[in-house]
Amino acid sequence: MTEVDRxxxxxxxxxxxxxxxxxxxxxxxEHLQVSHATVRRDFEALGKARKLVRLRGAAVHHAxxxxxxxxxxxxxxxxxPQARRIAGQAASLVHKGAVVGLAGSALVAQxxxxxxxxxxxPPADVGQAQHTDRSAAPALTIVTNDLNVAADLVRRSGLKxxxxxxxxxxGSMIAAGPLAGLLLQxxxxxxxxxxxxxxxxxxxxxxxxxxxxxxxALMISRARQVVVAASSADLNRSAFARICGTDRVxxxxxxTAVAPATAxxxxxxxxxVVTA
Length: 276
Known about the structure:
This protein is an alpha/beta fold. It folds into two domains: about 1-60, Winged helix-like DNA-binding domain superfamily/Winged helix DNA-binding domain (Arc Repressor Mutant, subunit A); about 65-275, Rossmann fold (3-Layer(aba) Sandwich). Helices cover about 40% and strands about 25% of the residues. The protein contains ten helices and 15 strands. It has helices at about 5-20, 25-30, 35-50, 80-90, 105-120, 125-130, 145-155, 180-185, 210-220, 260-265, and strands at about 20-25, 50-55, 60, 100-105, 140-145, 160-165, 165-170, 175, 190-195, 200, 205, 225-230, 240-245, 250-255, 270-275. A seven-stranded parallel beta sheet has the order 6-5-4-9-12-14-15, sandwiched between helices. A hairpin with a 4-residue loop joins strand 7 and strand 8 (about 175). It starts with a helix and ends with a strand.
């Protein structure tokens, strides 16, 4: 097995872990079409690299916090399976080298974790790239107004993390206000992924807090592609503050419980609906 094959296999394993809390040796072997022994060796290597935690016959996400006492439950691997699946699907829409904005509800924390797992570069590869090419581009550039998301991603090798600035809200660790707009005016985003409190085909994407809505709207104004992540329970409803209309949304990522009629209403407005 070549090094390329090995790293490709490791990336696939970490992608699977980004979408589910626990991955068994048997499930991984079946998915990758390799032997159980190969998966065990991969789990062992990834465990030593602190990418996962080995269990008897399985593996789970490595749960070490980025900043002691700062990160909340949103960044732990105990989120509902539905949220992890939506996050993993949203992360799969991002290509290597992209500049990605992350903002919105707590679901964005799961998207950040999935992106980190998907695009993190092995430290040895980062060192080699820096040695051969000082101008080597990062695997992914993340722009966010969420301090928790930034703290989780900054520890991952090969990622560039940019905070928008602004005034912090103690309750959510979200930076908001006119200072964020000053930075965003000077940058361009390939994709923005917004975690929505509610999404309605007619009224659009909304948030419970006007400051969160403002931050999301600013990022959307700088993005080529807009991806909205929301559970099916949050569709066909609206919250207090409007972020944008559905005419600005390219992709809606939700779960498989979405009603066909609801999916059709979004599709009729030009939104591609992707289920996970």
